[in-house]
């Protein structure tokens, strides 16, 4: 990684350059990303003005796997912010998407920061992910936040899933190995439900929200089943485990409500909607492929690279 880029991230986050370099090496150096990730630097002479990365993040729909990339780490030098540097980097991908082998770009931008830049550049925002929460134990802060993870599994169920009619993240073992090994802490576990026929896995993350809230995030859901009764039983059993543990203040989940599925219906009934939302935006380079249909995307909090 360019030393000037490392220095900019170091100054922005208040971390040592060695720590920043180590994080970037774990994220970009893994075999899953190393030959696929796109890293672009804007320069003037020998000075770096900005940097942006685009991580390979494969989505699959109806048996087709797309060369989709998530707009991830980006930073602009303080002296050059507000001068359109980030848009110029996006423009480079626009012009060179065939050479870069990019089918579409997508991002989950913050509303007050990068969201206006994406929309000004012409990205589309067909829907947002909505947050829903369930209060479990108001005094969970008295307990170790991570202790809840010991109640669950260290690996997900192995599922045989048919082709989905939704755009859904292709979570291969290689993808998960890269993603979870690149995290700074091991805050993850899996809730697995298996009644012999129906198999369901919740991807979980323990998170500290402020000083008093021990949050358990459902980041993704994988299943081989379309049995609503089994799914309801699985969620009930999961909630019972969390309640008995006493170490979780709230359970949260973020998902695309535009999909009218039995999964969404059950969470809509049991969890309360809160604000704000998480924006989903994309830039499509595929001719003859419409990505704007909101009810064709099955996305969760775990689709975001910072999960």
How are the SSEs placed, and which strands pair?
Elements: H1 3-13, H2 17-28, H3 31-34, E1 38-44, E2 47-56, E3 59-61, E4 64-66, E5 68-76, H4 85-100, E6 104-107, H5 115-121, E7 124-135, E8 168-169, H6 173-181, E9 188-194, E10 199-209, E11 213-223, H7 228-245, E12 250-256, H8 262-270, E13 272-284
Helix pairs in contact: 1-2
Strand content: 25-35%
What summary fits the major beta sheet?
10 strands, mixed
N/C terminus separation: 23 Å
How many individual helices?
A: 8
- Low-pLDDT ranges: none
Pattern of helices and strands: HHHEEEEEHEHEEHEEEHEHE
The total number of structural domains is: 2
Description:
α1 crosses α2. The chain folds into 2 domains: 3-125, Gcn5-related N-acetyltransferase (GNAT) (Aminopeptidase); 129-303. The model has no long low-confidence stretch (mean pLDDT 93). The strands form 2 sheets. A 10-stranded mixed β-sheet has the order 1-2-5-6-13-7-12-11-10-9, sandwiched between helices. It is globular. It has 307 residues and is an alpha+beta fold. The two termini are 23 Å apart. The chain contains 8 helices and 13 strands. The longest helix is centred in the last third of the chain and has 18 residues, at 228-245. It is 28% helix and 32% strand.
């Amino acid at each position: 990684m360019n030393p000037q880029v490392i220095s900019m991230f170091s100054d922005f986050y208040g971390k040592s350059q060695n720590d920043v370099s180590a994080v970037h090496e774990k994220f970009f150096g893994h075999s899953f990303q190393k030959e696929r990730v796109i890293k672009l630097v804007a320069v003037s002479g020998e000075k770096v003005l900005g940097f942006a990365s685009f991580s390979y993040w494969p989505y699959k729909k109806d048996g087709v796997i797309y060369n989709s990339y998530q707009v991830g780490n980006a930073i602009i030098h303080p002296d050059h912010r507000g001068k359109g540097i980030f848009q110029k980097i996006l423009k480079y991908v626009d012009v060179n998407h065939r050479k870069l082998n990019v089918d579409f770009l997508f991002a989950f931008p913050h509303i007050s920061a990068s969201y206006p830049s994406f929309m000004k550049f012409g990205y589309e925002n067909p829907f947002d992910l909505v947050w829903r929460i369930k209060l479990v134990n108001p005094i969970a802060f008295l307990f170790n936040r991570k202790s809840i993870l010991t109640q669950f599994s260290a690996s997900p169920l192995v599922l045989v899933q048919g082709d989905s009619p939704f755009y859904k993240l292709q979570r291969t073992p290689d993808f998960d190995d890269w993603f979870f090994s690149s995290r700074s802490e091991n805050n993850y576990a899996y809730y697995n439900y298996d009644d012999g026929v129906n198999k369901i896995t919740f991807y979980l993350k323990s998170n500290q929200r402020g000083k008093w809230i021990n949050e358990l995030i459902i980041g993704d859901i994988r299943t081989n089943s379309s049995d609503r009764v089994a799914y309801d039983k699985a969620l009930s059993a999961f909630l019972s485990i969390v309640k008995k543990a006493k170490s979780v203040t709230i359970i949260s989940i973020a998902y695309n409500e535009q999909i009218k599925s039995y999964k969404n219906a059950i969470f809509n009934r049991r969890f309360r909607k809160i604000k704000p939302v998480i924006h989903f935006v994309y830039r499509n380079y595929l001719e003859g492929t419409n990505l704007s249909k909101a009810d064709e995307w099955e996305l969760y909090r775990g689709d975001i690279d910072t999960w």
